[in-house]
Amino acid sequence: MTSTTAGLDAFLGILQFESADEHLEDFLRAVGQNLVMRKLSLKCKPRATLTSRIVDGKEVIHIKMETFFRTVVNEFRLGETFAENMLDLREVDAVWTMEEGGECLKNAHVDRKTGVRSAYERRMTGPDEQTVIAKCGDVTVASIWRKLK
């Protein structure tokens, strides 16, 4: 389906995690992952499937995150806060937004147990490549995701 939100179509599809810079473990620690979960997270290569559809006249985004140890599915509307389940077993209050002009898909998280805040920016850096910049406290990590379809 074609999105009704300007720029969102570029972010839809199946994406495979390809790589992250050297700050990934520090970021995982900053968001509150314990040692075992961090080591497991560093070994997996998640796959994300993003689709959209219209429900009651409003666009709903569906995201499915898959790894060898867990799959999570979340649905949400841009600009509305919802409870997002994370691959690392955290539940966060999240809000996703699209930057005006459709160049950047952003989301912000607040961990429901610890109050730890993190933020993510997704930008298309090539026809089939997405760069995600994640920040938590003073830690920033960049990762590359490759579009499969």
If you had to describe this structure to a student in words, what would you say it looks like?
The chain has 149 residues and is mainly β. It has a single domain, classed as Lipocalin (Beta Barrel), CATH 2.40.128. Helices cover 11% and strands 53% of the residues. The chain is built from 2 helices and 10 strands. It is globular.
Q: What is the percent of helical residues?
A: 10-25%
Q: How would you classify the helix and strand content by structural class?
A: mainly beta
Major sheet characteristics:
10 strands, antiparallel
CATH topology: Lipocalin
Task: Give short descriptive properties of this protein.
single chain, 149 residues, mainly beta, Lipocalin, ten-stranded antiparallel beta sheet, 10 strands, 53% strand, globular
